[in-house]
Amino acid sequence: MFEYLGTVLVSFDPGFDVLRYLTVRTLGGTVTALLISILLGPAIIKLLKSMQFEQHVRIDGPESHYKKSGTPTMGGLLILSSLVISTLLWADLGNRYIWVVLFVTISFALIGFLDDYIKITKKSSDGLSSKQKIFLQVLFSFLTMFYLFHSAETPPETSFIVPFFKDLIIPMSALIFISSGMFVLVGSSNAVNLTDGLDGLAILPSVLIAGALGLIAYSMGNQIIADYLYLPHLELSGELIVFCGALIGSGIGFLWYNTYPAQIFMGDIGSLTLGAILGIVAIILRHELVFAIMAGVFVIETLSVAIQVISYKTRGKRVFLMAPIHHHYELKGWPEPKIIVRFWIVTLVLILIALATLKLR
Questions:
Q1: Residue 123: what pLDDT?
Q2: Entry pTM
Q3: Is the confidence at residue 20, as pLDDT, over 80?
Q4: What single string gives the DSSP state of each residue in 114-146?
Q5: I need a labelling partner for 96 at 20 to 30 A (CA). Which of 47, 165, 261, 315 fits?
Q6: Side-chain-facing half-sphere of 278: CA atoms under 13 Å
Q7: Phi, psi angles (nearest 5°) of residue 253
Q8: Rounded (5°) CA angle 213-143-107
């Protein structure tokens, strides 16, 4: 909205042109989302408590988590409301990528809301069945990828970019582009969902990754920087930094209340949606492999569950004391804050490695 406002008002005073600057709108979006998230936090927590939207802890989980039962959940509403409002205020709504990421945000939030609502009404840790959840994720992922492929205006928008190589950009057919994108979206959504088991464990890595993806978006949207880094120039991608900035602000605001010991949990409405958001931004930027490096913690959490299930079904033995792997370290005696902070540090290191691939070509 402010971008359009700047376009209208610049005819009255050239100073209003500042509202169209990408950097200004990114800062504005970040601060707006942060303020909305922090200011609305107490009201949202009070509302969720009054509606008895409370966490029901798995009986087969770590005993230390039993005391968390009754903590308000569905805090993802706080993240997503501040994110969407800030994006609508500061982003260029004529940019189709903005509407793609907003569609993914809202559609996956719907899945998470249904899952959380069923858990709350049943007073159980069981929500949507795995088949129901995957079906909805696949459906919305297909619609998103189908649109991205058929709305592409330049070859790089549907090509595969290989890190460490200057000119290794591989065109993709519709089948490969859509199916691989669906895999990334569904996989990323569920990976963040699996990681969201400790206070603040999922939100800060998501914020850090959003910041890194925002830098890539800005670089690819700027012809000079893109040429310098040997990246394809995607003119519309720069606007995604405004969205990523809003996600950073809303995530940090949520962390204010979600840090250990958490006053509120994000629930599936938050974790499923955050994973999908990061996945779709990486897909639009054609940097899925770089994203996989950044999201190494999410990948490891997911693999730990897969390894545990396969091992138990084939050998009758468990590899980890409990999966996902953060529970393994809990049962080994690590304090929860130590696990959380160390996973944050690992994520930061992985992001630095991933960003280094942009220059090492």
A1: 72
A2: 0.91
A3: no
A4: HHHHHHHHHTSS--S-HHHHHHHHHHHHHHHHH
A5: 165
A6: 33
A7: -60, -40
A8: 70
